Amino acid sequence: MTETNGASHSEAHNGSLGSRLNWLRAAVLGANDGILSTAGLVVGVAGATSDRSALLTAGLAGLLAGSMSMAAGEYVSVSTQRDSEKAALALEKRELKEQPEAELEELTELLQDRGLTRDVAREAAVQLTQRDALRAHASVELGIDPDDLTNPWHAAWASFLSFTVGALLPLLAIVLPPADWRLGVTVVSSLAALVLTGWASARLGAAGPKPAIVRNVAGGVLAMAVTYAAGTLLGAAGV
Q1: How far apart are CA 217 and CA 194, in angstroms?
Q2: Cα–Cα nearest to 80, from 143, 152, 180
Q3: Is 12 exposed, middle or buried (0-12, 13-18, 19+ CB in 10 A)?
Q4: Which of 15, 18, 113, 136 is most buried when burial is the number of CB atoms within 10 A of its CB?
């Protein structure tokens, strides 16, 4: 009994840890998007004009548009996932009611596929079915926790806040320093932040940080170079 409780506690702990890591990874990537897109935007505008009001307006517009877009996209995406999970659970519940023996056999075979012998898998399937048939099938067959379905509002707010936090850095960097320092401060601070988010995303994914950092910095340099060149050309043309 102690071993069973310990295993359940371990599974719950591991599931909770995995969920937290997913949220942290999403937050880091949201902040990364905020840094990259806003830095590209304000650097592009800086190529056309040094007017602080124009830079502030463009930066704020980019921050609000980006954060709202991220939140709306995440809400729609996670809502679709949640609807799919609920539909799968409803189907499983109906099948358990209409054909319990077939579902018991299916659960047995799924447990066998995980390495249990036929007799042990059958006994485990019977016990799991007696305890909570829907939860057993949801976990083993669908990989779903019926009590912990994805929440679209949580995802939307997390994306909104992480993007906003990331976007604030280049926005403040382009409007607070003196005119001669704005571009340099924005580029250096944005690249430093991209190094940090690249390192964090790699660490959360248990991967080496160097490739992620190089990709992040290269993407940031390219984005800012292209938008600055475009802004400079438009500014020179008087557009």
Answers
A1: 6
A2: 152
A3: exposed
A4: 136
Q: State how far the Cα of 152 lies from the Cα of 36, in Å rounded to an integer.
A: 25
Query: 52 Cβ partners below 8 Å, 6+ apart?
Result: 175, 179
Helix (H/G/I), strand (E/B), else coil: 188: helix
Q: How far apart (Å, rounded) are the C-alpha atoms in residues 230 and 81?
A: 39
Residue 43: is its pLDDT beyond 90?
yes
The pTM is what? 0.75
Cα maximum dimension of the chain:
80
Residue 9 has which token pair? 């506690």
Query: Among residues 169, 186, 157, 166, which one has the least CA distance to residue 68?
Result: 157
Q: What is residue 208's three-state secondary structure?
A: coil
- Where in the chain are the domains? 29-237
| Residues 101-118 pLDDT 10s | 888 888 888 888 888 888
For 144, phi then psi, to 5°, come to: -120, 140
